[in-house]
Amino acid sequence: MNIQDLPTSSKNKPPSILNKSFLIAILIWIAATETSFQVEAQNLRHLEPSDQFGIQRVGAPVLSPEAEWIAYTLTETSLEQESSETRVWMVSTNGGNALPMTVSGTSSGNPQWSPDGKFLSFTGARDGSDNQVWILDRRGGEARQLTTVEQGIRDYRWSPDGSLLLLTIQDPEAKNGWGSNKANAPQAPWVIDRLQFKRDGQGYLTGNRHTHLYTFDLETQNLTQITSGDYNESQATWSPDGQRIAFLSNRTAEPDGNQNTDIWVVSSRNTDKGQTLLQVTSNPGSDSSPSWSPDGKWITYVSVIEPDLIWYATSHLAVVPSNGGAAKILTGHIDRNISSPQFRENGKDIIFRMEDSSEDHLVQISTSDGTPERLIKGPLSVGQFSLGKNGIIATLISTLDKPPEIHLLQKNELNRITYTNDKILAGIKIADVKNVQFPSKDGTEIEGFVTFPIGFEEGIRYPTLLRIHGGPVSQYRHSFNFEAQLFAANGYVVVQTNPRGSSGYGQKFSADLWAEWGVRDYEDVMAGVDYAIERGWSDPDQLGVGGWSYGGILTDHVITQTDRFSGAITGASEFLYVANYGHDHYQLQWEKELGLPWEGNNREAWEAISPFNKVDRITTPTLVMGGEKDWNVPIQNGEQIYQALRRLGVPTELVVYPGQGHGLRPPSYQKDRYERYLAWYNKWVKKNQIPVSD
Question: According to the model, what pLDDT value does residue 1 have?
Fold first, then answer.
């Protein structure tokens, strides 16, 4: 599980990568994060489903040019109004009270600073317009609209000199006169000619709308198109001198048939709409997240060099000359997924996020010798970050007991800056969480988390829930998990494992799932349950299992292979896999992993991983859930398992959320899902015992 060339997670590691002063800083930080809102234990209450709406989401920290302020977003969700609202806030890098910069009543996002630091910009849809760029004086006052693009914008970036905005804009929707002179005209039919013809959350993909790059002159208000054609551009970023723009685009003959995005460079002042371009990467896999070196000679980016492994492939850090040339992989010896690379001011070091085990660290690597150094490590999860003047870094950090908050790393000292959710959490009993390791059936070490019920006492066995993460290439992390805390507040031990297929343990560990879903990952999650039983925490006669997306998929495999669970919940799962061909949005991935179902013996591979073929073995009472318009994992799968269980006489219930895709948007649906989880588990796992209460 561990890497040989680079110390991995903080468990059993030599401290060579951390100097003494930074270790002291970590200890100071841990002490500083203790909340100032302490209350007496007897006044604390248990977590409830509606508490998810009291926890605000902190995001998108951006340092001002002089590194004195941090702009960020804060998202609040209202159950009463059935909506979420995001506002832009600002806090000093010295800490103190945060200041709201945008008004309530409308959402704003993507905060950025003007290069001189005098203005704060953001995106928002106000006064009936689509998403536009707005700007306000940092010292206060009303925001004013900068752009007036009819169809709105997708993204924007300030030019280094502050004279231009780089805009990412989708083509306007074609005018359609279908039934325009009829009072009750039906909607126009969808006419489709693409290989990838649908996407969850977007619907059917029709027409020839593409996304291109434009520059917007702040003085003249002129909008100039700088890329064009039957392609889409994204992740555009300015060169330090403002003369060039690097961007992402798949310009192969059949973009829907591969994931071959490359990095291209175009002149920021070209007059041919991007007909003259430089392709700087040629890797057949996905290249993404371009970032320039300070001198403009290099571009660092994320590269997937084994595209045939689809989502199981490791994402590596790479650099390439911005004028074209041979690319160099810098993290091939590390075998961990990296993201969000950025050059430091010295132009020699690159900072990026790295998954390692169940942790997310902030790592720096030298471009000259490939030597890595962990700047922020330990039992935590580093999120979005922003590099500032003199090496200052603002970043989001979450731990098992706290949702993400902004922290500042300066001169090897890490300080917490925001305390957004401390007040609400101070009044709630937070369950203890233990990071555990245990052997699977074949001896492979598996990692996971056990969350203990409020009031847990050694020597007492508790009802236990095995909860399985989605993905499959994802993982449970050292971060606050509302769901696990909610179950623990209701008297359950919660077992969460990172089985084969999970993303933080190297490519081989992840790709071990290839075309064999429900085999070794099944053994891994069951080993987690057995571990909790062996430790005396869990009652083997009161076990429940469940998950959403791949968590639901593996749940289906679990209940077709064992009758040890008293109750199961399968959400947004797959059941008869071949029925998804041409129906969900994973056609490329299916074809890579299982092959076309009508060719050769491929159909056998499709059937081998389909729980439908073992449905007659299920005896576990099972709650089935999903969204009506989920094209990630279509609800037909849930309907199939429900229908089969009804015919078999197994206790079951089907809950379909109207109009919903893979995720549930209305707060009332989110609350309802948790309430149904608790009701089902209380009925079948606790067997209608009196639930834990205040």
Answer: 38
User: Under DSSP, is residue 232 helix (H, G, I), strand (E, B) or coil?
Assistant: coil
- End-to-end Cα spacing for the chain: 42
Q: Which candidate, 281, 275, 302, places its Cα nearest to that of 290?
A: 302
Pick from 399, 406, 394: which is nearest to 477 by CA? 399
Short-list 477, 426, 454, CA closest to 34: 426
CA–CA distance, 571 with 559 (Å, rounded to integer)? 14
Average pLDDT, the chain: 92
* pLDDT number for residue 186: 84
pLDDT tens profile 426-452: 999 999 999 999 999 999 999 999 999
Alpha carbon distance 244, 321 (integer Å): 13
Alpha-carbon gap, residue 202 to 353, rounded angstroms: 29
Token pair in block for residue 336 = 């961990």
Task: For residue 329, give the 3-state DSSP assignment.
Answer: strand
* Distant-in-sequence, close-in-space partners of 135: CB < 8 Å, separation ≥ 6: 114, 119, 120, 121, 143, 144, 146
DSSP letters spanning 277-318: -EE----SS-EEEEEE-TTSSEEEEEE-S-GGGGGGSPPEEE
Identity of the amino acid at 514? W
Percentage of residues in the chain having pLDDT higher than 90: 87
Tell me if 35 sits within 8 A of 404, measured CB to CB: no
CA dist 351 and 376 (Å) reads: 11
Q: Span 229-238, mean pLDDT?
A: 96
Q: Say how far apart CA 51 and CA 7 lie, in whole Å.
A: 38
Say if residue 307 is preceded by a cis peptide, omega within 30 of 0: no
- Name 603's bridge partners: none
Q: What is the pLDDT of residues 472-505, one digit of tens each?
A: 999 999 999 999 999 999 999 999 999 999 999 9
Cα(456)–Cα(42) distance, integer angstroms: 16
Q: What pLDDT score was predicted for residue 20?
A: 38
Contact (Cβ atoms closer than 8 angstroms) between residue 291 and residue 303: no
144, burial (CB in 10 Å: exposed 0-12, middle 13-18, buried 19+): exposed
pLDDT for 31 equals 46
b/e 660-670 (16+ beta carbons within 10 angstroms → b): bbbebebbebb
Q: Which of 665, 664, 486 is nearest to 51 (CA)?
A: 486
pLDDT per residue over 75-106, tens digit each?
999 999 999 999 999 999 999 999 999 999 99
- Would you tell me how many other CB atoms lie within 10 Å of the CB of residue 119? 19
